[in-house]
Design goal:
By secondary structure, this protein is α/β, with parallel strands linked by helices. It has eleven helices and six strands. It has two domains: 129 residues, Rossmann fold (3-Layer(aba) Sandwich); 79 residues, Winged helix-like DNA-binding domain superfamily/Winged helix DNA-binding domain (Arc Repressor Mutant, subunit A). Keywords: DNA-binding, Phosphoprotein, Transcription, Transcription regulation.
């Protein structure tokens, strides 16, 4: 897997590169500004880019803009965004194209090295990974809606784990239940939310998240 890293903090940028290299991945570029990131993505033929939301020169949303531009040029280009804080508007902007290959994690999650590398690989493979805090925020925002209120506590837990990018087997292991039980919960979730299954786990997660964050 060929990885581009865009992170203005030198220590974190170096740390990310070292982690990925230690896990057998190839870091083709590690840069600290938005213009450098744009050039690296365009010229490196990377499989995935890890992007900080706020980068020089203005430290607003340059990293996110580079990410969305990259996905405009190459639909579905895998992007894992790192953010210092939960910013749901940024997550919504990334999800708006309806394609997979997306991740949004808080920088604190990098401390769990194995989980971070797993997230990078999921995104590179076309999957979707959202930080648990982002998912919790989305659920809270829609918590009073009738359709969400119909979900049982276990169904909410399954929904949250789905949004984190976990496969059915991983959800079953986490909850201590069978995959058959997980499938049943997922079917119930989609039924209550009025979502049609299409056999594509990533699209199902995106559909649920888009539904949850809609006004």
């Amino acid at each position: 897997m060929r990885v581009v890293i865009g992170e203005d903090q030198a220590l974190l940028r170096d740390g990310l590169a070292r982690i990925l290299t230690a896990y057998g991945e190839t870091v083709v570029a590690a840069v600290g500004t938005a213009p450098e990131l744009r050039e690296a993505i365009a010229s490196s033929e990377a499989d995935v880019a890890i992007v900080d939301v706020r980068m020089p020169p203005s430290f607003t949303d340059e990293g996110l803009r580079v990410a969305t531009q990259a996905r405009s040029r190459v639909p579905g280009f895998p992007i894992l965004v790192l953010s210092q804080h939960v910013e749901v508007l940024y997550a919504r902007e990334l999800l708006s194209d309806g394609r997979g290959g997306l991740g949004y994690l808080l920088k604190d999650r990098v401390a769990d090295v194995a989980r971070f590398v797993e997230a990078v690989r999921i995104v590179a493979g076309g999957g979707t990974v959202l930080d648990p805090d982002v998912v919790a925020d989305l659920l809270t925002r829609r918590g009073r809606e009738e359709s969400i209120a119909r979900l049982t506590p276990r169904e909410r837990e399954v929904l949250r784990l789905m949004a984190e990018g976990r496969a059915n087997a991983g959800i079953a292991s986490r909850l201590g239940v069978t995959e058959k039980a997980v499938n049943k919960h997922i079917n119930n979730i989609f039924g209550k939310l009025g979502l049609v299954q299409d056999g594509d786990d990533n699209r199902r997660v995106l559909a649920v998240l888009n539904y949850l964050e809609s006004p």
